Structure formats: C-alpha cells, structure tokens
Amino acid sequence: MAAAGKAKEKEGFDELWTFLQTAGNLDCTKLQPFEGADVKWEKMIKAKDEAEARARASLIYIAVLAKLGGFLVFLFWRAFMLPRYVAFLLASAIGAYAVHQIVTCSGDVPRTPLFGAALALLMVNMHTVADELLILGLFVKFVGYETTACSVRHSYRVWLEPHAGPFVDAAMEKAGPLLQAAQEQVKKLTVSVAPPAKPSAETKKNL
Description:
Radius of gyration: 32 Å
Shape: elongated
Strand content: under 5%
Oligomer: single chain
Order of helices and strands: HHHHHHH
Structural class: mainly alpha
C-alpha cells in the first residue's frame, strides 16, 4: 500500500510538472497588493480626515468667498480709483501705525501689525504684477493655507468638476506615462547625486 501510494504521488507530481511546463506565462501586471489591518486602518483614517475637510470647507466656503470679494474690491479700488499721492499718504499712515503697534506690544508680535506694514509697502500700485502677487500671498497667509486649499478644492468639486472632470481625467490618463517616466528620471538623478552612505562602526571594524 505504501509503495502504491508513493507511485501515485509521483505520478501526480509528474502530471503537475507537465502542466506547469506546458502552461503559458502568468500575467502578474494586475496583481493587487496585500492589505493588512494597518493599511485598512490608515485608509479609514484618511477617509475620515477627507470627510472632515470637506465638511469644514463647505462651512467656511461662504466666509472665504466674502473675503475674496473684499480682496478683489480692494485691488480694483487700488488700481483704478486711488490716486498715487493718496496711496503714498495711506501707506505712510498704515506704516506708522504698524510700527507703533510693533514697538509698543509686549511679548510676541501679533500678526496684524505685520500685515499692516507689508500692506503699507504694497499700497502704491506699481507697473508690474509683482505687487498684486505679493498682496495675494498676504491674503492667503491671512486667511490660512489650509482654509484656502479646502475652499479651492470645494469650489472645484462644486463648480468645475461636473463640467471639466471628464476632460481632466482624460488628460491625466494620457499624461500618466509621461509623469511616471519623469518620476523615474528624478529618482535616478536623486540616487546619482546623493552622497555615498557612511560605513557603520561595525563595517569599519571588519575592514
């Protein structure tokens, strides 16, 4: 019985080996990565954070729009309705007030006089767009980077994605191979430029 069992096992192994030899190549390009409990928990936490960010963006969206409207009105008033000599006078007054607040404050300097001092320097309309870009940077800093980013994403989802979403997806799909190739080139350059790792104490001892 033992000999018959071994013979049958050998025959089955030979059949399996023959089947593997004659089978075609196995396509492994679409294998799904194994996700353990830690990966699943990380995805759940990311989904929770994203849902909270969307809810927060929908709540602060109106406030950010109001501030953006005031910002655009200020730029229009500064560019077309504010005479240059009045702009110099306002800049001097705002700058003097900001300096007074900074000098008289005790402890950490609040950000309001700092913004006022920067705005005083940018009150006069120049002949370039550099001052508008700097004022835009001050506006984003005043509103907050995270608040601005959440509002921009919310605006895109509400107003642009329903119309431009398919075109953006198609463009990203076409640009995917190019972006991947660029990332690989950047990785190669990073590896080639990176300094060689210093040998550890154990390696030095062995040498």
